[in-house]
Amino acid sequence: MLASVVSALLCGIDGQLVTVEVHVSGGIPSYTVVGLPDTAVRESRERIRAALLSSQLPWPMKRVTVNLAPSGIKKSGAGLDLPTAVGLLLAIDELPAGCLDGVGVVGEVGLDGTIRGVPGVLAIVEALRDSGLDIVVVPVANAAEAELVAGITVRPARTLGELRGCLKGEDAWPSIPDPGPSSGWSGGIGDLDADGDGADLADVRGLPMARRALEIAAAGGHHLLMAGPPGIGKTMLARRLHTILPPLEPQEALEVTRIHSAAGRRIGGGLARRRPFEAPHHSATAPALIGGGSGRLRPGAVTLAHRGVLFLDELGEFPPIALEALREPLEQGEVSIFRSAASMVFPAAFTLIACTNPCPCGRGAISCRCSDQARARYARRLSQPLLDRFDLRLALTPPASGDPPGESSRVVRERVMEAVARQQARYLNRPWQRNAQIPSGIVVRELPVSPQCADALRLIGSQGRVSARGLMAIRRVAQTLADLDGRATPSVDDLLLAAELRVDVI
User: Fold this and answer.
1) Which CATH fold topology does 2-167 show?
2) Fewer CB within 10 Å: C terminus or N terminus of the chain?
3) Are strands 103-105 and 135-139 parallel, antiparallel or unpaired?
4) Side-chain-facing half-sphere of 441: CA atoms under 13 Å
């Protein structure tokens, strides 16, 4: 009386195949789970027992041993409840032999026999498909998400009793529920023009240079740092960046959906359409920003912002160790996390928008009340290597009263989308699609400039205020300015404006 059921668990944001082996034999009644289960997996005994009895299905009064293979990998979560329950029914001949050949099973069971959804189904189903399975049984709550995976048949299940009838051929499989017209999460990834708070770039009055910098950041994927006194509009600007970003490409949408599903964010149905916008509080720790954790390695804010925006308000108040951990993701577009038990690489190609006050009192150079020591101590919270990774650095001054509203987000987004299309055509066979993603070492080759622009770059570099990385950033920003204006190469004016948008702000 041995049964084997194929399933999978989350490992970071990827699926890890797990074979659930159930052995039922004579002896003193017992239930043992082996194969490095965590507390949630060990507690499955009581959930499965109550679920079977509530579904009018037998619970064997025998010795039951459940092995989770491969045994050397720690198993966590409740996603193995359903394959264990089904394997137990198969082992006691409540299900016909061979009914699970080529079938993967995943889900959590409730005490009343209902089958509940689990996070990360998209990655789990992909792993099952890649292993060669043809069919996957998932909870009804996850069926619409599982259907996003091509090349595998999805069978939804509502209860254990209903699933038993379907596997025996007595009942028809239930239909997959319609996900509805809204696509994405209530957390901010959905229809392009359906914004819950009604934010629009036209709400911002004045601040033309800041609006221009925001448009450049959206078009080229450049990191932007804004400094200015409290109440000037830094946060208001930053929170409207997502309203001018282009929609996700199909492959990007699948990536974003997969990451947020693995993070446990419930999906409303279908693929995400709008780019994610993550805004962690300034008390966030380094693992919260970068990812990791003491147990299962989990994605951090930089991965949740993949293909979107990471907004750090009050940048100077974040723990310095957390800010310094951002250096590699900003440069490489991914996070490599190494722990004693495991190592993992999370994607982290995001646009960083940060806001900060120029000094502790926030008044800036004109009416600052801080001492020299306080200003110096505040400035040291943001290291030069971190500041150097911002392509755009802007010091904001209060707008004049009575300034008219600027262009709406829809108008600006059209220009941004045109600029993005030019970049995608230019980098058609490259591993990057945006100007900001070009590695510094090959910017000169990828973005040639005229002799006049080369002279201007040498003049900017000779002043000794810009690093080599900064010169490459100026070159990339200038190319984005040209793309926004519909020109193939940047002009000297573009370079000078790019240099003006890279000033010392703190």
Assistant:
1) Ribosomal Protein S5; domain 2 (3.30.230)
2) N
3) parallel
4) 2
**pLDDT score recorded for residue 197:** 60
**pLDDT one-digit tens code per residue, 234-252:** 999 999 998 999 999 989 9
Q: What is the DSSP string of 110-158?
A: -TTSBEE--TTHHHHHHHHHHTT-SEEEEEHHHHHHHTTSTTSEEEEES
For the stretch 89-120, pLDDT in tens is 999 999 998 899 999 999 999 999 999 999 99
Structure token digits, residue 476: 């990339």
Q: Which pair of tokens denotes residue 369? A: 């009340």
The CATH homologous superfamily to which domain 201-500 belongs is P-loop containing nucleotide triphosphate hydrolases (3.40.50.300)
Per-residue pLDDT tens over the stretch 145-163: 999 999 999 999 999 999 9
Instruction: Tell me the percentage of the chain whose pLDDT exceeds 90.
Output: 61
pLDDT for the residue numbered 215:
96
Per DSSP (E only), the strands in 391-489 are: 392-395
Strand locations in 387-474 (E): 392-395
Mean pLDDT of 112-138: 94
> Region 60-75: what's the mean pLDDT?
92
Structure tokens given for 5: 């059921």
Sequence ranges of the domains in the chain: 2-167, 201-500
Which pairs count as long-range contacts for 18-21, CB under 8 Å and 24+ apart, including other chains? 18/68, 18/69, 18/70, 18/73, 18/75, 18/80, 18/83, 19/68, 19/69, 20/66, 20/67, 20/68, 20/80, 20/83, 20/84, 20/87, 21/66, 21/67, 21/68, 21/69, 21/87
Residues 6+ apart with CB under 8 A from 396: 207, 210, 226, 227, 228, 229, 232, 233, 234
CA separation for the pair 350, 369 (Å, rounded): 36
In 37-60, which positions are buried (b, 16+ CB within 10 angstroms) versus exposed (e)? beebbeebbebbbbbbebbebebb
Q: What integer pLDDT is reported at residue 295 of this predicted model? A: 66
Average pLDDT over residues 417-444: 91
65, 1 contact by CB (below 8 A): no
Q: Given a cut of 70, is residue 7 above it in pLDDT?
A: yes
